[in-house]
Amino acid sequence: MRAKTSVQPVSAAEVADRLRAAGLTVRVVGDPSIMVHGLTHDSRTVRTGQMFACLRGHLFDGHDYASQTVADGASALLVDHELAGVGETAQLVVDDTRLAVGHASAIAWGDPSQHVTMIGITGTNGKTTTAQIVAELLDAADQPTGIIGTLHGLRTTPEAPELHAKLAEFVKQGKRAVVMEVSSHALALHRIDGTVFDLVAFTNLGHDHLDLHGSPEAYFRAKSALFTPTFAPLAVINVDDIMGRLLANTLSDCSNGETMSVMTVDRNDVKVAAVTATEHAYQWNGRTISVPLGGEFNVANSLMALSIVAALDIDIDAAISGFESLAAVPGRFEVIDTDQTRSRGITVVVDYAHTPDGLERLLRAARALTDARVIAVFGCAGHRDRQKRPIMGELAARLADLAIATSDNPRGENPDAIINDVIEGVSEHYRARVIALADRRGAIRRALEVAQPDDVVVIAGKGHEATQDLGAETIKFDDRLVAIEELKDMS
User: Fold this and answer.
1) CATH number for the domain including 469?
2) Less CB within 10 Å around the terminal CB: N or C of the chain?
């Protein structure tokens, strides 16, 4: 594991040199010897001596705020055209600031990814749980670990300036490793450019984010962009997944001389002993691995995490001891255990599953827990990939005994219209199993009201989220708390 270091200021010329080393064209306007103390793309947070990166977005153009950041103390600017009215401030002029900001952020924040063991995890499902497990195991092996992901920020993977600033903070705190969820958005938008990983991992690929990528093929290409020697020397890939097998084979067959080492993870390599709502166990390399996380799909998540940790130079037995104290991952197959659930003999599970593949895995895991009924509450987000709505409707109706289609985060889109898109995918054979109820609290209550002993109630889509985005307003709404409140109200 690498030793910590402190962030030292660099000159605008050094930042320019880093960009050129990354293959980018850059022209320096002004004094190249001006020192840079960090970098930000948020004009509201710029501090004296920082470089301000002028990024273009859907709603705002950072170039419009450049002069204000200079007045607030910015020492240099990253721009895509020379700006007037910014005094003697150094300007690094590039063709596309988004292509440059990752590399500029890395050097401006002291290349923090090079001073910790960096683990990047991508895939449609399982990133959050796998990352949490990896961090717990590394902590148990005396490798203090930071986490960047869905549970730890506004975005799964933050913009490059935020990312490297956070990594620099981890280094300052004495972290020896960082595990990071890498989203397809981050890869497509170059948020992790300039980051150096020791290991990158692939969990699986399902249907998601086609509103951004346009096609499953483009989505896979975005995910695959992480698996190059530019980012890491080693890949850990789940080959139970068909796209994982394709990725592993592609990397292994690479003939251009720039190869990565590939370690594959195969569920068939372990003998599963038991899976319940709250735990699972299997045999791995002659050891019995007991994991306090329920659900069949968590076998794959814990096995991936274990394989990642085993690939690092640490005490594996100490790491495995971390399973003993592993806490439930918020909103990931989280069992709501109350006096009411126990007295009624029902199981209530809250999960973040919001993709067809994720919902299918979740409902199959719920089905494996009972010979009674599975009752599902689910929805689809507004102003997001509409193609997955009818697919999720058909899956829920086919795999649950009762499916209640409700609102997720409508974001201003008509919830009834979203639900109609969902129900349109349900074949006539299963239509009688589906109820439409746009009020999410009402939908959760309905599921709990009709649940009988041994039934499993699954509340899917929002998981750990504590709010609901209605568009005009964002309200407090936590599926876990709502379920507890409604259970108490019925007692």
Assistant:
1) 3.90.190.20
2) C
